[in-house]
């Protein structure tokens, strides 16, 4: 409908201009008569022109709103990026602070390292770091992050080391319940979780209890926190409890670790 109206408008304009042109060239005195005849049309022209002006004015407003929305979207995206950066910086600062506190409170020969690779064949239960035998790393070295046990060195090259995480199903760590005379074995399970095995049904363990290394066997120093008890179940027909343990930190998001040398 709008396109038809605009076409009519342009055709009438051509007609009027034609009349004025012929009158001026041939001096026929038609101007006054033409004006009297087309005065109603002039009103129509006025209305059509108003509609056209309004139409293009609305287009202009829409264009302005789109430009404004684009600007606001860009500013929002920049703000979200900055928030993400600040959040990442805060987490890294907290991690570094925890590492520093651990260094101050433990007499270990510690070597800092960055995670450079998650093993996709093992569901992120082994990671590779950027230090190796040239840095004094050996197979069996214990690895921590922010003061919490995360695993031990499984293999080394000159400049890299592969770490088997405590959540790996092959991992087994002698453990104890903090502030209780209860020991067991922490094992990894599928899904990046932990279980505390070989704990008799008679031992009193509660949700929230902290689990640390016991030091038995000599492979791990005593007192390194590993996780917190998440669920305890009495198993019918078994002498041991079924205890689920949640790791102290998210091992899927490891970025930096410390290797305990020696």
How does this model look, in words?
The protein has 262 residues and is an alpha+beta fold. The protein folds into two domains: 1-105; 110-262, Thrombin, subunit H (Beta Barrel), CATH 2.40.10.340. The chain contains two helices and twelve strands, in the order ααββββββββββββ. The protein has helices at 2-26, 30-105; strands at residues 109-118, 126-129, 142-145, 148-156, 161-165, 172-177, 183-189, 193-197, 210-213, 225-234, 241-247, 256-261. The chain has a six-stranded antiparallel barrel with strand order 1-2-5-4-3-12. Strands 6-7-8-11-10-9 form a six-stranded antiparallel beta barrel. A hairpin with a 6-residue loop joins strand 10 (225-234) and strand 11 (241-247). Helix 1 (2-26) crosses helix 2. The longest helix is centred in the first third of the chain and has 76 residues, at 30-105. The radius of gyration is 39 Å and the shape is elongated. The termini are far apart. The model is unreliable at 37-46 (pLDDT under 50).
Features:
Thrombin, subunit H; 12 strands; alpha+beta; 6-stranded antiparallel barrel; 262 residues; single chain
Short characterization:
The chain has helices spanning 2-26, 30-105, and strands spanning 109-118, 126-129, 142-145, 148-156, 161-165, 172-177, 183-189, 193-197, 210-213, 225-234, 241-247, 256-261. The chain is of the alpha+beta class.
